[in-house]
Amino acid sequence: MRVLLLADINSIHTQKWAISLKIKGIDIAVFSLNKLTTSNQELQNIEIFHPGNFDQDLSSVGLKYKIKYLKAFPSLRKCISKFAPDIVHAHYASSYGFLGSLTGFHPYILSVWGSDIYDFPGSSLFSRMLIRYNLKKADRILSTSHVMAAETQKYTDKKIYITPFGVDLNRFKRYPVKSLFPPNSIIIGTIKALEKKYGIDYLIAVFQKLHLKYPELPLKLLIVGSGTLETSLKEQTHSLGLENEVIFTGKIQHEEVPDFLNMLDIYTALSISDSESFGVAVIEASACELPVVVTDIGGLKEVVDNQVTGLLVPPKNIEKSVESFEKLLFDVQLRKQMGKNGRERVKRYYDWNNNVDEMINIYLHFYSSNR
Asked: What is the pTM of this model?
């Protein structure tokens, strides 16, 4: 079975799908508007197509930018002719979904990712019309979460199938690592892009309150990631006198994530945007047996069993967040139990090996019916 993915090859999510499907015996190729810029040896056996003259700013969401994707359409048609796929699967409902819809290829599968369904349709009437058109052309529509499926349902009456994006339980697990902080530190941490929607400024404010209230505790904060707010967040930390308690690591490679998670005692994601489509980072933390403190919004609340694997708090509510951290800081046994519960939940719902098998079963449904 030959499957052509229409997706950004530099996305860790695309790479993870492509490599895992290849390992499972699917003949995979990727058509990407971006050239491959990352070094991943596992991609060497996967054919990657790229329209050589395409220089579009892929971060732009407006309709006028998406129309320019038509420049890549002739290259996509050549790609389909050369690779001769049995199935075309577009990852992203606006850009790659637009190109996939134009091909008229069937079976055609479309996966929604997040901003393509939360942000793009709201930019204009024509954007909403384009999303409706792309969803209409799809033979099956996939979403990683129920909350994003509900958002997608605003633009189609088709059934949305849930295909979780889980974690490799052999990589994400509890194991000893060398910490960046002194021994016996109690480390709260997050691994997110340093952007407004992720509420890192609220996390720093919460941490300051905990630090002032409990000066006897060796509290530390680890902020992993990079983004446009990195400078301002460091300035906030400095203004609050927390330089010796907080470490910013900057950007790390995805393969390093388990090591940094295993430095933590509590993982947190205090995002403030409902456009959080799915809590992959939270699942990774739970797989490493960490209790989590997470805002009760979007796809985040879907991956946490409140009071069992972690604690849900209202967004932008510093006091409630402080209370939740207090509950975990002073109950080591509760932290351990929530961590163990979290890993069991990940095994049940978000084992990556099972998620890949679920995707292959979707492919087989169409592949078998067309033979």
From this structure: 0.89
Prior bond to 107 cis, omega within 30? yes
Q: Write the pLDDT tens digit of every residue in 82-129.
A: 999 999 999 999 989 999 999 999 999 999 999 899 989 988 898 899
> What mean pLDDT comes out for the span 152-163?
96
* pLDDT above 80 for 40: no
Q: Quote the CA–CA distance of 133 and 153 in Å, as a whole number.
A: 13
SS3 234: helix
Residue 26 CA, chain-centre distance (Å), reads 23
Helices (H), the chain: 12-23, 63-67, 73-83, 95-103, 115-118, 125-137, 146-152, 200-213, 230-239, 257-261, 280-287, 318-329, 332-349, 352-369
How many residues make up the chain in this entry? 371
Residue type, 258: P
Please, how many CA atoms are within 13 Å of residue 347, restricted to the half-sphere of its CB?
10
Residue 206, number of CB atoms within 10 A of its CB: 25
The whole-angstrom separation of Cα 12 and Cα 79 is: 22
In contact, 257 and 295? CB cutoff 8 Å: no
- Using alpha carbons, select from 200, 205, 223, 323 the residue that is nearest to residue 270: 200
Per-residue pLDDT of 211-230, as tens digits, reads 999 999 999 999 999 999 99
**In 10 A of CB 217, how many CB atoms?**
13
Task: Tell me how crowded residue 141 is: count the other CB atoms within 10 A of its CB.
Answer: 23
The DSSP line for 92-125 is STTHHHHHHHHHT-SSEEEE--SHHHHTGGGG-H
Give the whole-angstrom CA distance, residue 253 versus residue 115.
Answer: 23
The tokens of 343 are what? 């890993």
